[in-house]
Amino acid sequence: MFEQTRREFIKQSGSLLIGFSICSHLPEELLAAGGDLPGSLSDHPLLDSWLEVNADGSVTIFSGKIEMGQGIGTALIQIVAEELDMRVERVRVMAGDTSRTPDEGGTGGSRSVKNSGSALRSAAAEARQFLLQLAAEQLGLPLSQLEVDDGTIRPRGKKTPSLSYGRLFGGRRFQRVATGKASVKDFRDYRLVGKSVPRIDLPDKVAGRSAYIQDMRLPKMLHARVVRPPNYWSRLESLREKSVLAMPGVVQIVRDGSFLAVVAKREEQAVDASVVLRKNAQWNGEAQFDLSNGFFPYYENLPFREMPVKHWGNVASSFEGSSRVIESTFRRPYQSHGSPGPSCGIAQMKDGFLTVWTHSQNAYDLRLELTHLLGMPKEKMRVIHKDGPGCYGHNGADDAGADAALIASRLPGFPIRVQWSRQEEFQWAPFGKAAVIRLKAGIGSDGKVRAWQGRIISDTRNERPGGGGEVICAWHLASPIPFVASIGNTLGPARNGVPLYSFPNLDVKVHSVKGPLRVSSLRSLGAYANVFAIESFMDELAQVAEMDPVQFRLNQLEDPRAREVIRRVATASQWGKKKRVGLGWGLAFACYNDTGAYTAMAAQVQVEKQTGRVKVLRVIAAVDAGLVINPDGVRNQMEGGIIQSASWTLKEEVKFGPEGVKTQDWEDYPILGFEEVPEVEIILVNRPDQPAVGVGEVAQGPAAAAISNAIYDAIGVRVYDLPFTSINVKKALERTS
Amino acid sequence: MSENIVLNINGQKRKVENNSDVSLLLVLRNDLKLNGPKFGCGLGQCGFCTVFLDEVPVRSCVTSLSEVQGREITTLEGLSEGEELHPVQQAFLEEQAAQCGYCTNGMIMMGKALLDRNPNPSEEEIRLALAGNLCRCATHLRIIKAIKRAAREVSGDV
User: Fold this and answer.
1) Other C-beta atoms within 10 Å of A711: how many?
2) Which of residues 57-76 of B touch A (CB under 8 A)?
3) Facing residue for B36 by CB, picked from A208, A338, A388
4) Counting Cβ atoms within 10 Å, is residue A320 exposed (0-12), middle (13-18) or buried (19+)?
5) Cβ count within 10 A of residue B154
6) Structural domain boundaries enclosing A253
7) Are both A178 and A136 inside the same structural domain?
8) A412, A561, A583, B117: which sits with the fewest CB atoms below 10 Å from its CB?
9) Are A174 and A100 in a shared domain?
């Protein structure tokens, strides 16, 4: 009855003074009230969840979206400083702390600007309106006569009387639910949004000040190293501990089932002890797969579950009525995140309360995972984000955090620091998923695609922490929290599996398989392989239709924003101009995750036919990500996305067999280096009237496809298998000749 | 066995007590609490841990404490003078030449070493000088620009 009344009250008034509890679960009626609010504000409608005015007049903003080198902290500050009419220097950001910041899920999917940015914009606009009303009352002036200058409210055009945000409201709580009714600034009045504000986190990083989780040094901190099995399938059979316990500095060996770690006073002591411990451990267990015919023949013949993605029209009958039908198969191997710094986690158990520091993308879900691992309620845990080395998806950060938490739970009182080795990061962090993409299309007499069929064979498991059994140490416990083979999440492999072109008949399905390796999200998920396949295939189709690839695309693409980015890139690359022997240009397009940024790209490559060696010389990209918050931030993400994708596309492939993952270091896993990096030109199509969307994951697919098409343009041979190493290019050349 | 060892580091004498076969990187980070040099691979492959030994860049993760006694060690922290950054560091900020920033130490150190021996490097010379350093976020082009900018600053040709 009471609930009913409150709910009605909220709906009528739109705001309500309530008791201050930011972090506990919100009552259902508040969630209902938040229903129509922008971005993550709908899940966290309290203004206090998002921002706080400090006594000195500065403002602290709270976000669930963490910094991982993509510049999100700076972008969020710009958005809030804009709405509050303050300098960026007076706004600070706190992100990913389960005791204070809103749970916005993980940081990824190019969703941070969209979800956290729009929530903060709306919350800041509402806070500004509230502060102005308060000032109007205190100053005895009509609201319409007031203005804000760097956080000080005063009569328009006059210096006095004035009230700073700090004097007016410093240290107080809003205790209000957002209404979403305060109007946000018109984009034509922006002075901070749209400017290339320098990254707030870089000065410390460039000067070598403490900036990363690896730089944390807590009093009494002990160093731990985990000794992992040789592969996923092995279990600890026997162990000789004595000689290790006698080694200098060794405090404890933590063993639980097959989980084995050593804790020492100093880091080098932990490293030395772990080497001896590994020698003293016997493991057994065998892999249950056979790759003697190669990986892809194995992978393509795994049992699968068919999952529909999109279907319209009648594909089968349309193939029959097509003048030409062609089919191609594209392949992507498992690829590594290759985080530049191996993962690190720090944890401390004190008086039954666990604190964990992590560079995970999702502090909240790691905490949830730890409830399963440790059997502790989440109220007894705090997980805090600290910046880490480059993060391009779900790397070893959560696992290292869980390792530290598990060890800390056995050694109460001591902060435990777990530092992974390079080998551990390569062998145990989840991999980017392999994929085999079979495409079939029928072309009509009008030179357009009449029917399109896509079959995406890929791992659909996603080991994001939260559900239990999704951190490595959990599998190895004496009572393991099982590694659940949850086939059935199409989200990743299906991403960008459906082309944006207006094809009258279409049928796309995922064939969900359980491959041999641990997999999870790597930047752009399935979009990388899907866009590579679709846009390579579009060039093949254009050739069958005897049309220029750009014209072929534009003939079947209605969206004006899509057409614009393609047109821009075609112009900038002087598309269709005569070229030199051995050099080729290729073009590709995608709209990321169907509703995100529009990206078109042209790549120029040089191919040596004798060696099969491919060099990417130049890439020109046009991106329309709606309203651009920070142009240099967008450029940085685009440049990095393109070059990283060029590295995946030309070089990267994880090597493994029944004995385990063979890729152990950078010699086994070469990435693109300075002497190979192409020139990159970014064209920003700013559309301030369109919602801002992220760009962290938009470049990967188009870059791969543009390179693929450029290779074809250079040598007249299509390479279907990633990566485009000399071996794969030569194989393709031999097949054709 | 643990020994008392005096190191010449960033112009100061610092005493440490450790084994002579311990890697210089761990000593710098843990005993001397310096954050500039980073642990990236421990194999001398990535360059994140680069420091100068008598002005020559070395990979501190594969350099033992015994190799550095009596020599002048300079870390990233030793490049700046108080709050004033070295021109190469400043140029990295001006060009926003980082994403995660984990490789930045190595890039700045190699960039400074290059400019010390060649104040006016061509782009090719810059690429060659950095060829042994990895950047996974792929900010290579910005790093090259930053070193070009620092070269202009150092030579007064702004």
Assistant:
1) 27
2) 75-76
3) A208
4) exposed
5) 18
6) 213-285+338-429
7) yes
8) B117
9) yes
| pTM score | 0.94
Tens of pLDDT, residue by residue over B93-120, are 999 999 999 999 999 999 999 999 999 9
Query: Could you write out the three-class secondary structure of A294-334?
Result: CHHHHHHCCCCEEEEEEEECCHHHHHHCCCEEEEEEEEECC
Peptide bond just before B121 cis, omega within 30 deg: no
Tell me the pLDDT tens digit for each residue of A249-282: 999 999 999 999 999 999 999 999 999 999 999 9
B36 contacts B77 by C-beta, under 8 angstroms = yes
Q: Is A4 part of a structural domain of the chain?
A: no
User: How far is Cα A418 from Cα A427, in angstroms, rounded to an integer?
Assistant: 16
Measure in Å the smallest separation between the Cα of A199 and chain B Cα atoms: 7
- Is the Cβ of B33 closer than 8 Å to some Cβ of chain A? yes
Tell me how many domains chain A contains.
3
Nearest CB neighbour to B76, from listed A208, A212, A340: A208
Of A400, A429, A458, which residue constitutes the final position of a domain? Answer: A429
Do A571 and A653 fall within a single domain? yes
For residue A305, the cross-strand partners are A512
Tell me the CATH number at A640.
3.30.365.10
Interface of B with A in 115-144 (CB under 8 A): 126-128, 130-131, 133-144
Out of B75, B101, B142, name the one closest to residue A205 (CB): B101
**Measured between alpha carbons, how far is A327 from A544 in angstroms, rounded to an integer?**
12
ipTM beyond 0.90? yes
| CA distance to partner chain B, nearest, from residue A525 (Å) | 17
**What is the Rg, in whole angstroms, of the alpha carbon atoms belonging to chain B?**
16
Both tokens of residue B97? 């030449």
Q: A173, A200, A227 — which closes off a domain?
A: A200
> Closest Cα of chain A to B59: distance in Å?
15
